[in-house]
Automatic annotation (TrEMBL):
Residues 217-288 form the Toprim domain. PROSITE patterns: TOPRIM. It comes from marine sediment metagenome. GO terms for cellular component: cytoplasm; DNA-directed RNA polymerase complex; primosome complex. This is Toprim domain-containing protein. GO terms for biological process: DNA replication, synthesis of primer.
Amino acid sequence: GLNSPFTVDSTKQLFHCFGCEAGGDIFTFIMKIENIDFSGALQLLADRVGYTLRRDKYGIPSSERKKIKERVYEIHRLAKNFYVKNLYSENAAHIRRYLNSRGFKSTTIKQFELGYAPNRWDGLTNYAIKSGFNVNELLQSGLAVESSKTKRGCYDMFRDRIMFPIWDLTGKVIAFGGRTLKEEIAKYINSPETMIYKKKKTVYGINKAKEQIVKDDRVIVVEGYTDILALNQEGIKNCVASLGTALTIEQIRLLNRFTNNIITIFDADTAGEAATERGIELLKEYNG
């Protein structure tokens, strides 16, 4: 509001309004004041100082692409913390009971940063917007779905699900897998592909397993998130998950940076057998 306290930290170059809880950097400020997106704010500031923006083949300024990418990483970090916090709320008692019934220890749950997406259409959306993100950034991150029926123009991708963060090699959260305990809908849904997440190039748990893979000179590839939790709990740490699909050439290439010995253990169903056969074909092809 106009009469609310408003502060600017010139050292950190951040602003905060205590009335509407808006905050952020110079770009966020311009976006809110001028009611424009990040690209428009960047162009406005560039014009003001007489700077010509260099653009990539998609017409996005290279500096903007880097900025957008960083924001997508930041919103994933925020979402992970939001989901983790929610796992320990009263509303998630049924989720904690389920994880306990599956035999997962609290240390394992914390190590793999499991969380809970609340049973709301706007849980993460509201939290992210109050934290200085905008709808466009939520959509670019794949954490919200566009909709003309909602007030904000989007709704949460994940609702009432156990949340498994997916990390890149360096340990940055780049996507999520969400499991429902309900019967009538898809048991698992995963983040869509974004500028930081390419499914065929990603294996779950690689950031935690890479040192043990090098040490053992072998990697065990399983299908899902909970397989990794169960194996780690038994002290088997040189394992990753292919995120429910047959191994891809890109995943094999990634694993080969740490070992040439790849062992696949997929489920003993038709899909699992097909994935094993396809994986063996690709390994033969890759190793010549």
